What does this fold into?
Amino acid sequence: MHVVPSLDPDSPRVRFGAELRRLREAAELSQAAVASRLGCTQTQVSWLEKATRTPSRSDAERLDMLFGKSASVSFARIYQRIVAQPGSPMWFRNWVEEIEPNLLVLRSWDPLLIPGLL
It folds into this structure.
């Protein structure tokens, strides 16, 4: 089960990724260098930049510490906009903050769904 985010340029998730890429390139850091500071993989940093991964609160806090307040961007504020989007159910905030960052496998059981072609 893979969810493709909307690529609306006004989306907070897209802005998060764009700011991450802009600041990373301005600081002349590779994705691997940022990943080592965040405690994740280079692929996960790439997913953040492409807006295909929802950042966690700790990602936002670590990025704020990494790039400092002089960056004029608050990743924590952008993160709050991501989890507080209108229409998002309340359980989603806990999912984004606590479950998704630690998730290794997501399995779904749908007895009325037959995957593949018949």
